[in-house]
Amino acid sequence: MINGKLHRKNTVDHMTFTPFNLVSFHSKVMSLLPGDLISTGTPGAVHIHEGDEVECQINGFASLKNKCQDLKIKTHA
Length: 77
What we know:
Elements (H helix, E strand, L loop, with lengths): L18 H11 L23 E4 L7 E4 L10
Antiparallel strand pairs: 1-2
């Protein structure tokens, strides 16, 4: 979901790489912290922008909502 609107719905069994493999790979090249998202993309992707709120949900778990931040935008002088 982006800003409360469902754009795409899919299941992990359709993914090229399993979530386990994605987390394993990324954790070898960067530090992952609680709350970090690994954006895997989706067919017919929708662009997200600074300030958008994205929500991810996995059956059996609480949903996770985060505001997007463009790290290229300077936030201080």
